[in-house]
Amino acid sequence: MPFPVAHSLAGISITLTAKIDRRRSFYSEILLAAFLSNLPDFDFLLVLVTGSLACHRSFSHSLLAALLVGSLTAFIRNGSFHKKDSLVYTLVYFSHIFLDFILSTRNGVQMFWPLSKLKITAGVITYPLYNWLDYDGFTLIERLAFISLLEIFFFSPVLFVVFIARRYLSDSNVVDQ
Ligand SMILES: [Zn+2]
Predict the structure, then answer these.
(1) How far is the CA of 156 from the centre of ligand 1 (A)?
(2) How far apart are alpha carbons 14 and 106 in whole angstroms?
(3) Cα(135) to centroid of ligand 1, in Å?
(4) Distance (Å, rounded) from C-alpha 99 to C-alpha 142?
(5) I want to staple 88 with a disulfide (CB 3.0 to 4.6 A). Which of 18, 40, 121, 131 is the partner?
(6) Which pTM was predicted?
(7) Do 86 and 71 meet the contact criterion of CB atoms below 8 Å apart?
């Protein structure tokens, strides 16, 4: 069960591998990447409304949702269909689904909704905090902070490498022209 820290770092890393249009604010693209890479979990609003946990990791965690949200975001940003931006935003959104798929041992994602409503998971890693109800107060805060630090430890090197590569390529006039 990856946290927002891991999702954000992965999404921002993907955005930074793409050439960002100089007419746009660099930071707005970073913020957009952080938002899109966490957007699938906004399905918690549906859980609150319906009271059913089955809504979590359902259609919002599918390839179709990634494609639709990515294409729509690119359309809104450009005012018309934009193939490259559609791909980047789709990948940023999909990074969330992929991490949930890889880093969950239970409660997978409906990757192939609506073709299949089966929640699938690769079950690679069991996160140290699976059941929120087992913890409360300071212990819960302590666990959340610990896992967030672990995610920074494992995911920030990827972002760092991408950032350095981007700067190097930019200095070589390959990126951001
Ligand atoms: Zn999720």
Answers:
(1) 20
(2) 26
(3) 21
(4) 23
(5) 18
(6) 0.87
(7) yes
